[in-house]
Amino acid sequence: MSGKGGDSSLESPVCERYQLVPHGYDGNRGGWIWIADFAQSASAARYWLRMEPQGAPTALARESRCRDIPVAFDRAADGLRFSFVCIPLHKGLRYRLSLWRECTEDSPAVRRVAEGGCAGLPDSLAQGFNVWYGTCFYRPADRGALADALAALPAEHQPQVSFLGGDQVYLDTAFSNSGPSIIPGFGIRNFSPLVLRTRATIRRKLNHVFSREYRENWRNGLGAKLRSGFHYFLAGDHEFWNDYPNPPGFLPVLWPRKVRQVWEACARELFAAYQAPANHPASQFTVADTLRFFVLDTRLQRAPGRDGRFTDDQTFAQLTDWLRGLDRAGVLVLPAPLLTHWQFRKLGLGKSLLVRLGFGDHSLADTGQYQDLVRALRDCPQDVLILAGDVHFSRFARMDLGGKQVVEVVSSPLACLPSAAADRELKPEYFPDRPTDDIRAQVHYWRHEESSDSARISRRGNNNFVTLGFRSDDSDDDIRVDVVCWNIEGREVNGALTPDWQVPDLVLKKRRRSAPVAEPVPPSVATPLPESPGIPEVRLD
Question: Using one digit for the tens of pLDDT, what is the confidence trace for 222-241?
Answer without folding.
Answer: 999 999 999 999 999 999 99
